[in-house]
Amino acid sequence: MRLGAIDYLTKPFQKAELDAVIGQCVGTAKGESYAGEIEELCDDVFFVAASPAMKKIRSQAALVANVDIPVLLLGESGTGKEVLARLIHKLSPRAHRTFLKVNCAAVPADLLESELFGYEAGAFTGATHPKPGKFELCNKGTILLDEIGEMPPLLQAKLLHVLQDQQFSRLGSRTLVKVDVRILAATNINIPEALANKRLREDLYYRLNAFTMSLPPLRDRKEEIPILLKHFMSRMSESYARPPLPLSAPLMEACLRHSWPGNLRELSNFIKRYLVLGDETLAASELQPRPDGGGGMHTDAVDRSAGADSGGGLKSLSRNAKDEAEAEAISRALEETNWNRKQAAALLQISYKALLYKIRQYGIAQSRSTRRLSAGA
Ligand SMILES: Nc1ncnc2c1ncn2[C@@H]1O[C@H](COP(=O)(O)OP(=O)(O)OP(=O)(O)O)[C@@H](O)[C@H]1O
Ligand SMILES: [Mg+2]
Fold this sequence. Notes:
- 48% of the residues lie in helices and 11% in strands.
- The protein has three domains: 65-214, 3-Layer(aba) Sandwich (Rossmann fold); 218-297, Helicase, Ruva Protein, domain 3; 322-377, Arc Repressor Mutant, subunit A.
- Residues 29-33 and 292-311 have low confidence and may be disordered.
- By secondary structure, it is of the alpha/beta class.
- The chain has helices spanning 15-30, 52-65, 81-91, 109-117, 134-137, 153-165, 191-196, 202-208, 225-239, 249-257, 263-277, 280-285, 301-305, 313-336, 341-348, 352-361, 368-376; strands at 38-42, 45-48, 71-74, 99-103, 118-119, 131-132, 142-146, 167-169, 176-178, 182-187, 212-214.
- The strands form four sheets. The chain has a five-stranded parallel beta sheet with strand order 4-7-10-3-11, covered by helices on one side. Strands 1-2 form a two-stranded antiparallel sheet. Strands 5-6 form a two-stranded antiparallel sheet.
- The protein contains 17 helices and eleven strands.
- The protein starts with 14 loop residues before the first helix and ends with a helix.
- Bound molecules: adenosine-5'-triphosphate and magnesium ion (MG).
């Protein structure tokens, strides 16, 4: 290094690490001004940090990565909590071990316990063979408990034991299993409210929030929009094998004016759509604020572009109408329940998972006023 090497790798290393180092070296050689602001974490997962706020998060991640304490990752949907978890893992001494994500909202409550802690044969009907849980599979690695606010309180108590003693027993067994797992947790729920209505156990919360990192919404780090647009354009044009499309000054301005309620996920979807549509004006029209003040891309641009006026026919017309009606009903149910997604799902008579999916699909975001309301509740 003293003789001028840019970097080095310690064996054994993964291909992604080698790619990232080479990428950085090539960037440095080309005088690429973005080198150092974009890093590849693993295959096709990148961490972009260009604003002062994100650079601070990047350096905090480097510090906390070396200390084996739990980290609680907060931020609106699409702000990059999972990406940040992967960064912490990659910067930690566990980098070459397993990183596992468990989405507590996607696994039905009664399955979550066996998913996390495993079971012995005969623990329940159908348990013919013993099966290790995610904690055992992830030994020496890092586990991300995503949407921790959706974990049933009883299971939260069991998790608290793992955090305290790094041990637990499989379902149907009394033998304690000892594991060495780094726990990261993420959520976008309103914490004071979840603590008040006992959805989140206070003792677990205080264990988890030994170190909290809050990702700012994209509207509060708008200076990153140009680099993010260029980054997603170059990545996605490559993966769709299409030539990158121009990001003109008017398009850039429209993007800077937009409030991005769906944050970076919405921005990456925007580029995807632009690449598919191939039409700047059409893509930019998606960024116009809607009359209801939502200001987002609530309906699928691809669908809309194929609407009646562009000759898409009756089928796409009715699909658009269905999408709009669904998005409308979901927004209403969420407002009525103060964004309690479980209650909203019950109201709409769909599963919780389906609701989460649709919220993302339609880019529905909580308005500032309801956020204040639920925070004060
Ligand atoms: N710092 C970042 N650099 C580059 N891309 C990012 C970054 N943060 C987020 N993204 C992009 O945004 C997408 C959403 O990020 P991620 O899944 O981490 O969000 P999240 O906060 O976990 O959202 P949710 O609460 O909805 O699960 C990612 O797939 C990635 O493409
Ligand atoms: Mg996530």
